[in-house]
Write a structure and sequence with these properties.
Helix content: 55-70%
InterPro entries: FilR1_middle_dom, HVO_A0261-like_N, WH-like_DNA-bd_sf, WH_DNA-bd_sf
Organism: Candidatus Methanoperedens nitratireducens
Structural class: mainly alpha
Number of strands: 4
CATH topology of the largest domain: Arc Repressor Mutant, subunit A
CATH architecture of the largest domain: Orthogonal Bundle
Oligomer: single chain
Pfam families: FilR1_middle (PF08350), HVO_A0261_N (PF25213)
Domain Methanogenesis regulatory protein FilR1 middle: 139-195
Domain HVO-A0261-like N-terminal: 16-94
CATH class of the largest domain: Mainly Alpha
Strand content: 5-15%
Largest sheet: 2 strands, antiparallel
Number of domains: 2
CATH superfamily of the largest domain: Winged helix-like DNA-binding domain superfamily/Winged helix DNA-binding domain
Length: 206
């Protein structure tokens, strides 16, 4: 089957049966996802899926016929093609969990400003949590932010504001060998070219 440059919907229409063949079966989905972590015996697959051999074996045979699964040394494992399919299924599941768990956050923020490459990795926020505060102390959020920075084992973040306190806290972590990666807004980038930030950045170059 040849695929010209067409829309996502048109591609789906051409391969709809294959897509539904995988996602329609709970057992097939569970088998594929469970094998991402490690190879499994038939008895282990029965335990994970809570199903009998009579139910599991036909699904295994179907996945084998699709070249997504193979048996080696009495264990089942994903083929290279199976690894690709299963990883996409796993990412799709993580994305749905992230969106559903923090639906208010995503629907109340301006997501159009987030680069597509980052949005494509939104599933990586699976274990994230939203930290918010209703304290009337205007400095409470600022103090908590600095506390999180000082206690973190790594700092990967997005910053649209800057202050000497932020810069000092992050600078101390860099000197301490803590990995730091920040995506900053254009206005913050311009501020970092000025003092007192410029000299601090120069001191951290080494």
């Amino acid at each position: 089957m040849e695929y010209e440059d067409v829309s996502a919907l048109a591609v789906y229409e051409k391969i709809r049966e294959e897509v539904q063949l995988i996602y329609r079966s709970r057992l097939q989905t569970e088998i594929l996802l469970s094998l991402i972590e490690s190879n499994k015996t038939l008895s282990k697959l029965r335990e994970i899926t809570g199903s009998t051999s009579q139910a599991v074996i036909p699904k295994i045979r179907k996945l084998e016929s699709m070249h997504l699964l193979e048996r080696q040394n009495h264990e089942y494992q994903l083929t290279p093609l199976g690894k690709v399919i299963a990883s996409k299924m796993a990412d799709f599941s993580r994305v749905l969990v992230v969106i559903n768990r923090h639906s208010y956050f995503w629907t109340s923020h301006y997501m159009a400003g987030i680069p597509a490459t980052l949005l494509n990795g939104i599933g990586d926020l699976f274990n994230s949590e939203i930290i918010s505060d209703s304290n009337v102390n205007i400095f409470n959020v600022y103090e908590n932010y600095l506390k999180i920075i000082k206690e973190a084992g790594y700092v990967y973040g997005i910053a649209s504001i800057i202050s000497p306190g932020h810069a000092n806290a992050i600078g101390e972590r860099i000197v301490g060998g803590i990995p730091v990666e920040l995506i900053i807004s254009r206005s913050v980038a311009l501020q970092l070219k000025e003092e007192p930030y410029l000299s601090k950045i120069n001191s951290l170059i080494n």
